[in-house]
Amino acid sequence: MLWSLAEAAQRLGARLTGNGEVRPTSLSLDTRTLAPGACFVALRAERDGHAFAAQAVEKGAAALLVDHELPLPCPQLIVEDTLVALQAWGQGRLAQVAPSQVFGITGSVGKTSTKELLAAATGAWKTPGNRNNTLGLPEALATLPDATRAVVLEMGMSTPGEIRRLTEIAPLDYGLITMIGTAHIENFSEGQQGIARAKGELVAALKPGGAWAHLAADGWCRWIAQQPWASHARPLPVGPNEPWGWTNARSLGAQGEAFTLVTPHGRAEVRLKLRGAHQVRNAALAGALAVAAGHDLERVTEGLGSVEPEPGRGRLHALRHGGWLLDETYNASPDSILACAATLLDMEGGEMVAVLGSMRELGEEAARIHIETGEALRRMGVSRVWAYGDHAKDLVRGFGSGLAFATFEALGDALEAVPLNGRILVKGSRFWRAERVVAWLLEKDGSDSRS
User: What is the CATH number of the domain that holds 58?
Assistant: First the structure.
């Protein structure tokens, strides 16, 4: 699916050394995950990727993308700037394949789950994993298969301008914003308005007349819709009392969620394997946009119902002593912690407890946000909390009781007290690697990855 080196050299304006007929199987930015046959892209970042080129060759790289020729026995594409070339490669491949529909998804929480739902609803190619930044997106697009008719792209950001750059690499026909929250707020002097403006770069980049879906109840999305720079796009408010939305939402416990998808083109019953009211909202957003883009309602609902929970993103483990463990360890924000905790309220089982790593990138408001999150968990009905990380004490202070530790290692033996016959939420920002908590608890329980 990738260009041959000769074609890549022509399209990127690169100088080629070695066999131009070589066709890499993928692009790789990291020797730790490089697969044999990949083209290794030597980026100049905190560490200079050129220093790892020899290691890439040893691991089986088929080619190198570098900014100067290296004395290595491997074909090389030599460019002035490897980052510019990487982005041009992804941009050029998308333009060459020219799918008829390009969807972009952003939001403070729920981007990846909604990407999976929208891709299933439309039968589209999707960016794998969380390749949602100015490195990962073009890396993924470089492998875009021929004859792809629709693509769904996750677009993340931590500072202004990032989504704008992503939409330059991948121009959009349709957009979706899951919600405007507080993630990365430390990087925005305007607070949530700054976040909304940055997320709104996705809407600003839509082709004239392009539709974008958002929750009707999200005030900051309504603010985006009212801005002059968004006037060329068609907002699609999605909600329980809207022409596009949902009704009759209900929990199916361990089996997932059910609801009726409402559109001007008809209604359809949806049964989700994903769990939680927040997933109903994500699915309704994805389903509404898919139907608005012309996809068949019945096929849309079938696609929504086919999506399975992934590790770290809502995987539910049945424990041997009658309890449940909800693995939501991929990341954490105030909204996502509370949404995931609410998921367990609908489950049968023992006491509801949480093991939480701290949240990150909350700026000067971090202590307050952790305290308020702890307070909300107590009001919700969580009975006990174990927390670790730099704001663990704030979270426990807000909750009113509990155990706080500076690190996962310090948490240690305290996990012995987590009740394996209860309903357990494990969540935390990526920095704290909360998946280690899941592994520890499953090993203690004698469980495998059953869900």
Answer: 3.40.1390.10
